Amino acid sequence: MTTPDAATNDVPQPGPHDLPDVSGLVVGVLGGTGPQGRGLAYRLARAGQKVVLGSRDAGRAKAAADELGLGIEGADNAECARRSDVVIVAVPWDGHRPTLEALREDLAGKIVVDCVNPLGFDKKGAYALRPEEGSAAEQAAAILPDSRVTAAFHHLSAVLLQDPEIERIDTDVMVLGEKRADTDVVQALAGRIPGMRGIFAGRLRNAHQVESLVANLISVNRRYKAHAGLRITDV
């Protein structure tokens, strides 16, 4: 009896998928003055990526970029979007819709990577919110019909991302999107950060549970005083 995992001579086994070279792409980070945005900007720039850090206030963005160094540049959100090939959305959930609505034209044609987690907090801790569209990523896709919306980088610790003493962050990044060419680019960007690996995790309709899982990780981190991430096994 042959199990589904068994390799046979009759069934060709898939080889490693070659991801594109993304080293020449400019990556913009909206919400780049917040902990997650700063951390992602720092890690990508440290890996050799050209990064533009965006904020509603250009002065704050430039100050944060100067503090991070590594050739990172600061700009207001609109200029950040216009100058970038790939734009990571790392704004707070309550600013998600208005930020994207204001940048609809500037983000047209761009790969947009939404890493926003809709969460609420009460005395019991963090809990997931369900946007009307289903998820933050689906809300982004609805607001940005002319952009190539993906979702990724949800489960990363801002503390680890910003710590210059940490060389590697051993975790997987779940990447969701509608077009393989777009998710391949995001997987390749994740893979530029030492220790990270981008894993395709489905279409945007599956983004809600990925975003919601952050509430569980927050509970793990509080209980164990950790900075937990995820690993996908057998891939």
Structure write-up:
This protein has 235 residues and is an alpha/beta fold. It has a single domain (26-224), classed as 3-Layer(aba) Sandwich (Rossmann fold). The protein contains eight helices and ten strands. Helix 4 runs parallel beside helix 5 (136-143). The chain is globular and about 40 Å long. The two termini are 24 Å apart. Residues 1-22 are annotated as: Disordered. It comes from Streptomyces thermolineatus. This is NADPH-dependent F420 reductase. Keywords: Oxidoreductase.
Total tally of structural domains: 1
| Percentage of residues in helical conformation | 25-40%
Give average pLDDT, whole number.
Answer: 93
The CATH level-2 architecture is identified as 3-Layer(aba) Sandwich
CATH topology (fold) name: Rossmann fold
**What sequence of helices (H) and strands (E) makes up the elements?**
EHEHEHEHEEEHEHEHEH
Radius of gyration: 18 Å
**Biggest sheet, in brief?**
8 strands, mixed
Report the span from N to C terminus.
24 Å
CATH superfamily: NAD(P)-binding Rossmann-like Domain
Protein name: NADPH-dependent F420 reductase
Region (Disordered): 1-22
Pfam families: F420_oxidored
Domain Pyrroline-5-carboxylate reductase catalytic N-terminal: 27-118
